[in-house]
Amino acid sequence: MQPPDSDVILQRILAYWHWAGLPLGRERELKALAITRQALQQQQRPALEVAMQAARADLPSDTDIPPAAPPLRRGSLRYGAY
Predict the structure, then answer these.
(1) Residue 13 and residue 36: Cα distance in Å, rounded?
(2) What is the pTM of this model?
(3) How far, in Å, CA of 10 to CA of 80, rounded?
(4) Is the pLDDT of residue 82 over 90?
């Protein structure tokens, strides 16, 4: 069974902010919930795309944007050792 879109979006936002080094307190959690709600209410684009753009825009300007995924390693592609 696939999790609801709201669960996936909320988890991705919180993980993204955590990777960016932001403290995850009550205010930030409420902001993530608000972004999730707004993303689910709009109909023009995929909700996850809208939510992640809003999460990225909410980062302080001096924060390095974390990568969307961990770096690929040759072993993860089954190419063997380096």
Answers:
(1) 8
(2) 0.73
(3) 36
(4) no
